[in-house]
């Protein structure tokens, strides 16, 4: 399958790689098919690129890449919606992403609305968490640059 993206130009994708969001994403109900693309080889960042509306794309990352303590309990009804069964499924088949927002020089992650993907059947869902303690705009700061040491001599 080939489609034209406003951000990346022409994209050719194997239809077996398309993720299906039966309920769409909140605020983007008409967007039900996406692909995941690497941002570049040097970062863990990826793009969640909409196939239905090629002008829609979200920068995403696996939450452990930005916050090691991020833990997520996925309720049974959500796992069932994804088509994943605890008795027979491999936990590595469910991947979690968080959507990033760039505002000027600020980069934040929405930890309260993770995107869940069942890699086996390519079914996906954005889960909205009720806990107000989990930030919608978790700041991501680059590591401070190390000062160059003066040459010995």
Question: How is this fold's topology laid out?
Answer:
Blueprint: E1 2-5, E2 9-12, E3 19-20, E4 33-38, E5 46-50, E6 57-61, H1 76-82, E7 94-103, E8 106-118, E9 123-126, E10 138-140
Antiparallel strand pairs: 1-2, 3-4, 4-5, 5-6, 6-7, 7-8, 8-9, 8-10
Name the CATH superfamily classification.
Answer: BH3618-like
Biggest sheet layout: 8 strands, antiparallel
Helix content: under 10%
Low-confidence stretches: none
CATH class: Mainly Beta
What is the number of strand segments?
10
Radius of gyration: 18 Å
Counted by DSSP, the helix tally is 1
What descriptors fit this protein?
mainly beta, BH3618-like, 1 helix, globular, 153 residues, 8-stranded antiparallel β-sheet, two-stranded antiparallel sheet, 5% helix
Structural summary, described in words:
- The chain has 153 residues and is mostly beta strands.
- The chain has one domain: BH3618-like (Roll), CATH 2.30.290.
- The protein is built from one helix and ten strands.
- The protein has one helix spanning 76-82; strands at 2-5, 9-12, 19-20, 33-38, 46-50, 57-61, 94-103, 106-118, 123-126, 138-140.
- Strands 3, 4, 5, 6, 7, 8, 9 and 10 form an eight-stranded antiparallel sheet that branches. A two-stranded antiparallel ribbon has the order 1-2.
- The longest helix is centred in the middle third of the chain and has 7 residues, at 76-82.
- The N and C termini lie far apart (62 Å).
- The relative contact order is 0.16.
């Amino acid at each position: 399958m080939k489609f034209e993206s406003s951000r990346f130009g022409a994209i050719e994708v194997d239809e077996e790689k398309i993720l299906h969001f039966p309920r769409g994403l909140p605020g983007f109900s008409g967007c039900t098919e996406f692909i995941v693309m690497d941002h570049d080889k040097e970062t863990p960042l990826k793009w969640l690129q909409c196939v239905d509306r090629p002008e829609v794309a979200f920068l995403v990352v696996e939450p452990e890449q930005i916050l090691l303590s991020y833990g997520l309990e996925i309720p049974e009804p959500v796992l069932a919606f994804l088509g994943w069964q605890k008795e027979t499924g491999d936990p590595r088949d469910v991947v979690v992403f968080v959507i990033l927002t760039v505002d000027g020089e600020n980069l934040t992650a929405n930890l309260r609305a993770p995107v869940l993907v069942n890699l086996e059947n390519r079914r996906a869902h954005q889960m909205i968490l009720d806990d107000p303690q989990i930030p919608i705009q978790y700041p991501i700061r680059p590591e401070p640059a190390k000062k160059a040491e003066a040459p010995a001599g």
